[in-house]
Specification:
The complex is a heterodimer. Chain A is an alpha/beta fold. Chain A contains 6 helices and 4 strands; from the N terminus they run αβαβαβαβαα. The longest helix of chain A is centred in the middle third of the chain and has 19 residues. The N and C termini of chain A lie far apart (44 Å). In chain B, the strands form 2 sheets. A 4-stranded parallel beta sheet of chain B has the order 3-2-4-5, with helices on both faces. A 3-stranded antiparallel beta sheet of chain B has the order 1-6-7. The complex binds iron/sulfur cluster (2 copies).
């Protein structure tokens, strides 16, 4: 794994197509620090995050990672609950396609993320607030790159409408725990 | 099993307009198996409603629950304590469950979150196909086990019609998908069974009064009634 990391140190700049969406650019609020939840799988994403740490790579402190045995464990409700609780963005990070430790967990996760995007659209929220990324356990630099890209994306989108409404004086807390 | 599809979110929002306390009620039987209205889906809808309300800056007290079977009094009793706390219930059960809920809790506003669409079978994972129209007078015994009522686009009893080509029906599905001609299937099956003589028999007009065309039906099993 050690020598793989040296080759992985220069990942190709593969910004996902969603983030390249040509939306009318909102001015970025320099004070906005997004809260981002990452559901990472044990075998690849979490290991990649670890590696990014040991390589002393910088990535934003905005991300909070929740370890799953496999992204196949990720349910639609987990993505929604994160957003409901006020996360500005959520992404799943799983193994490379075809290399899932549990064979197809990451493919299931991708489908669920895609479905959640549709639900967000129905709710009038930007579907770009949820995403699915793939990486191998040797992809420490890619892990950092994805974290940077996604944080930038959410900064461009601004705070989640849930959070904004929460702050608005008219809004009251209504949902039972 | 009974299958149902969730109504568009927009329609659900319209039904719930102005409501501030809502319970989403799933059912753990048919609608759970067809991945539309079980506890999981009820929780998802409740989360969507909560997010939408927060986005709009509205107050909404929303939660979810699921009955083992929403179409039976006993199982409605089991969730009564929770239901009692909400003036509005949006049900994800089939039409039977929704009506049972409305009848069991007459003081509640009970609304549908799904469109009940058919009696179908899971053909493969996540694909359901209509298999029975509950016509009340089953003809499968003379049609090789293939239902002409719902699988033939015209519900013909003495098919096929002139629209049958290369095993396909002239009618296509709502998404332009090809439909196998039920009468071609029946024909092939009866020949394979050596029962082709059945194809020469003329089936008289069906007594549709046994279907829902005869008005609401009731089934009573006297021998099983409590003494
Ligand atoms: S013939 Fe009637 S009862 Fe039999 S499968 Fe078809 S619709 Fe159902
Ligand atoms: S083509 Fe076959 S299935 Fe279609 S209407 Fe005619 S007999 Fe029925």
């Amino acid at each position: 794994m050690a020598d793989e990391t040296t080759t992985a140190a220069a990942p190709e700049a593969v910004e996902s197509p969603e983030s390249a969406n040509e939306e009318p650019q909102k001015p970025i609020d320099p004070d906005f620090e997004p809260e981002i939840i990452v559901f990472g799988c044990h075998y690849c994403a979490y290991a990649a995050a670890d590696l990014a740490g040991s390589m002393r790579l910088q990535y934003p402190t905005n991300i909070r990672m929740i370890k799953l045995p496999c992204t196949g464990k990720l349910e639609i409700i987990h993505l929604l609950k994160a957003l409901e609780a006020g996360a500005d963005g959520v992404y799943a990070a799983g193994c490379l396609e075809g290399e899932c430790h549990y064979l197809k967990g990451n493919l299931w996760a991708r489908k669920r993320v895609e479905y959640t995007k549709k639900l967000l659209e129905e709710m009038g929220m930007e579907p770009e607030r949820v995403e699915m990324f793939n990486m191998s356990s040797a992809d420490g630099p890619l892990f950092a790159q994805r974290a940077n890209e996604f944080t930038e994306r959410i900064k461009r989108l601004g705070p989640s409408p849930v959070k904004q409404a929460k702050k608005a004086p008219a809004a009251k807390e209504g949902t039972p725990a | 099993m009974i299958t149902a599809e969730r109504k568009p979110f927009e329609e659900i929002l319209e039904l719930l307009e102005g409501k501030e306390k809502v319970l989403v009620a799933g059912c753990e039987t048919c609608v759970a198996v067809c991945l539309t209205g079980g506890e999981k889906e009820a929780e998802i809808l409740a989360a969507e409603l909560s997010i939408k309300a927060k986005e709009d800056g509205r107050t909404l007290d929303v939660d979810h629950i699921s009955a083992i079977r929403q179409c039976e009094w006993e199982y409605l009793d089991a969730i009564a304590e929770k239901v009692e706390q909400y003036p509005v219930v949006i049900s994800m059960a089939c039409g039977i469950g929704i009506q049972s809920m409305a009848e069991r809790f007459p003081e509640k506003l009970v609304l549908p979150a799904v469109n009940t669409n058919m009696l179908g079978m899971p053909q493969e994972h996540a694909v359901w196909i209509e298999r029975c129209g509950a016509c009340g007078d089953c003809v499968l015994g003379v049609t090789g086990g293939i239902c002409p009522i719902v699988r033939c686009s015209k519900s013909l009893l003495n098919g096929p019609c002139g629209g049958s080509h290369d095993g396909l029906c002239e009618v296509t599905g709502p998404n332009k998908e090809e439909i196998p001609c039920a009468w071609q299937l029946i024909h092939d099956k009866l020949i394979a069974q050596g029962r082709q003589d059945l194809l020469m028999k003329v089936t008289p007009p069906k007594d549709w009064s046994k279907s829902n065309s005869g008005g609401p039906r009731t089934m009573v099993k006297e021998e099983a009634k409590p003494v």
